[in-house]
Amino acid sequence: MGDSIDRSDALQEQVRAAIADDVPLRIRGGNSKAFLGRRIEGREIDTREHRGIVHYDPTELVLTARAGTPLREIEAALAEHNQMLPCEPPHFGDGATFGGAVAAGLSGPRRPWSGAVRDFVLGCRLIDGHARHLRFGGEVMKNVAGYDLSRLMAGSFGTLALLTEISMKVLPRPLHTITLKLDLDIAESLRRLAGWASQPLPISGASHDGTALMLRLEGGHGSVEASAARLGGDIVDGQFWSALRDHELPFFTGEQALWRLSLPTHKQLPQHLPGTMLIDWAGAQIWLRSDADAALIRERTAAVGGHATRWRGASDIDCPFHPLPAALLALQQRLKAQLDPQGLFNPGRLYAGL
To answer: Which domains does the chain have, with CATH numbers?
Structure first.
């Protein structure tokens, strides 16, 4: 386990100085997800020295750590007790931090079966736009519009406040894991996945890499082995899932722009989209390599109830995240006004004006 260092007072002082100088702050941890969202300018505030596991009780399945703690350090500490972060957050680089993982709110291949990052956030400490260091569940602040503010930090990309500490629910590691490769095309894979969804199968990963359906089965030894025998296919190396999580598969290299399409659970794919697809989350998440116009990609994704985010490439797009409906944008603006009235934290990272 690494060093435990509390730099909350120094971070709070930097926020006070930014308020006094009326300058925005660009929050950074490991910078492993700096490519996501809109480009922002501001005085850098670095969380990496504010690090360490504050409390970990394996019997209660709860871990609390400071925002700058390396994500690998968190995972190593959990692995010693055969436990894990069930949301399987991606790293996208060796420097990924715990706070960055929560602020980005990104989940790995297990997400449809275990839950998202926000589902496991139990509480947090943060510095708001008034330079107050608040603890939710301890140093109580009224929730804005009745929302659980600690969970609102997941996926906020640092636009609402500066996270300093997070408490998360953790889970035991599965006793047994098998990865299967089934030689099926995309259409047949989605048809079978829809049928398997109503059956008691221990699936915790389902991805089509363009050539075959990859399935991860996890659970007790007997149930996993019986399910593998029933489903068929070849048993292959399970490293596929970490490579998928961190975009280390060959699919994620290339010159074309990379898009993330988030779809409803009915698994209907957008029609007539040019490019190459990799399917994850049993069809609820599509990675698309395409040079097609952003408006076309979003129009055809929205037609099946989804939304599209420009992940990498096509840097001329002013709004990488799917535009918000007016009502949701107004809600985001009210939250920002309450927590960060001076617009200090990562202004414009998600959307212009936020």
So the answer is: 8-172+330-339 (3.30.465.10), 176-245 (3.30.70), 258-312 (3.30.70)
